[in-house]
Inverse folding.
């Protein structure tokens, strides 16, 4: 099953608490952020598809999906499984890649050198695959694996005997959303690799421009294509439109290249592509809040003053997160966790926390603060909100549970994840067929393989988490929950007490 992101845009009631009075629980401020960072990056090795390298650290995983792409006579091996299933969805994978790269760009200097290397390895595992998806003219491969068949099985990726259907979009059919996000991912990754591997960086940037051209020339949502829709929906349909991905891709290309042409694109297309929409959401399907923050850097530094409306939208988004702001309308659980109705909640928490820290840095570097109508908010306040979210995730919550697998003494044992819940092929060499895995899914026993570093969907609005494998909205990890958390944790490694 999948944890989709697109939820109604709503004004939720917020607890009448000042930020400083949000509940604090045992062990607050004593977390080992460096350990958590290491594990958050390690998680991605458990999601790998393809031929695994000799230095694979999660040794219960093995090779899988080695024939991916054969129906198109092309190599589509590699990349990541998005969550607890065995499908490679291009849309969320590209967003995951963008967020990993953005984490390195903004907070790589805060990472210990070995973890920076590990983060770049995690990015490259994705970008090597994304390069394959745009390797053919006027075509983008958007998915590998039939999700309906896959979700009807409970089997290890190493045993996959389900259809590895390849979903491709050929022009003039549009795929602006996936191609635009792929352009953003490759451009951001190009920036992340600039100093360590300039040749690879150049390759990524060249293909980012190619992906963006494909996205912009043939405008439309990939999930409107009947040849694709049956495979991507309802899991990763484009619910919120493709326009934000075009601006997002252009914004990343503008930042990386400093090419005025991309700046002009943003300026000329902003209104027609809905740039002025102030949507308080950021994730694999909706880039508006992240787009506003990204462009605000240039506005704050005086490089793009004509795009002031983006900064105004970023300010507005940040003010919604301040409990004692007159414009606050983000809901918090009684325990202090940001909560948005819908699927897996921690995807919102980690992405919003990331934006809080990035925007705080942009404000600090330009000696500015945030005006939220009735109050003036400092960068420190934004960082404190993010820290409360991080500490909640790591164990400072009413359950006293870490929602990162393998961190702390009390963490989810029965996550909704096939590879983790089934015995490894090292312990059980015989294949486990599609329905033979059901006994493990239905078991009340803890998963035999610890997916170290995985962030699950998290507790409900009442702060309760029942550790139930079947409750996928709460117990399923995803790559796009972890990716922004890498940057968040890197910040707190260097700044455990924000100021």
């Amino acid at each position: 099953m999948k944890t989709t992101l697109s939820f109604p845009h709503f004004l939720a009631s917020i607890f009448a608490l000042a930020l400083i009075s949000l509940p604090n629980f045992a062990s607050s401020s004593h977390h080992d952020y460096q350990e958590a960072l290491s594990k958050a990056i390690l998680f991605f090795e458990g999601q790998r598809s393809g031929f695994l390298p000799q230095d694979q650290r999660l040794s219960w995983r093995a090779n899988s999906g080695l024939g991916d792409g054969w129906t198109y006579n092309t190599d589509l091996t590699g990349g990541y499984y998005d969550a607890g299933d065995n499908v490679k969805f291009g849309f969320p994978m590209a967003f995951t890649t963008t967020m990993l790269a953005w984490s390195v760009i903004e907070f790589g200097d805060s990472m210990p050198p070995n973890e920076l290397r590990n983060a770049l390895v995690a990015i490259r595992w994705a970008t090597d695959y994304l390069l394959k998806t745009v390797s053919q003219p006027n075509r983008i491969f958007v998915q590998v694996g039939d999700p309906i068949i896959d979700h009807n099985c409970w089997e290890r990726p190493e045993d996959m005997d389900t259809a590895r259907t390849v979903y491709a979009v050929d022009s003039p059919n549009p795929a602006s959303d996936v191609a635009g996000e792929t352009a953003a991912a490759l451009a951001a990754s190009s920036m992340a690799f600039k100093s360590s591997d300039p040749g690879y960086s150049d390759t990524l940037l060249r293909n980012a421009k190619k992906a963006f051209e494909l996205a912009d020339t043939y405008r439309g949502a990939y999930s409107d294509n009947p040849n694709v829709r049956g495979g991507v929906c309802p899991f990763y349909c484009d619910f919120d439109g493709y326009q934000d991905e075009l601006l997002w891709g252009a914004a990343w290309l503008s930042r990386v290249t400093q090419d005025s042409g991309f700046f002009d694109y943003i300026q000329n297309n902003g209104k027609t592509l809905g740039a002025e929409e102030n949507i308080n959401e950021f994730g694999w399907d909706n880039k508006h809040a992240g787009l506003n923050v990204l462009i605000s850097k240039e506005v704050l530094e005086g490089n793009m003053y004509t795009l002031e409306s983006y900064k105004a939208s970023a300010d507005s988004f940040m003010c919604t997160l301040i409990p004692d702001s007159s414009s606050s309308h983000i809901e918090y659980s009684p325990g202090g966790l940001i909560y948005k109705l819908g699927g897996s909640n921690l995807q919102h928490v980690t992405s919003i926390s990331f934006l809080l820290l990035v925007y705080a840095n942009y404000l600090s570097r330009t000696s500015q603060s945030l005006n939220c109508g009735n109050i003036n908010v400092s960068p420190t306040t934004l960082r404190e909100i993010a820290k409360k979210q991080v500490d909640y995730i790591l164990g400072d919550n009413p359950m006293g549970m870490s929602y990162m697998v393998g961190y702390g003494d009390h963490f989810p044992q029965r996550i909704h994840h096939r590879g983790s819940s089934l015995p490894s092929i090292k312990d059980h060499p015989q294949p486990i067929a599609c329905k033979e895995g059901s006994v493990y899914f239905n078991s009340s026993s803890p998963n035999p393989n610890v997916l170290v570093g995985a962030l699950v969907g998290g507790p409900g609005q009442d702060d309760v988490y029942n550790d139930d494998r079947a409750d996928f909205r709460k117990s399923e990890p995803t790559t796009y929950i972890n990716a922004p958390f890498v940057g968040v944790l890197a910040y707190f490694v260097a700044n455990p007490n924000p100021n």
Observations:
- The longest strand covers residues 139-144.
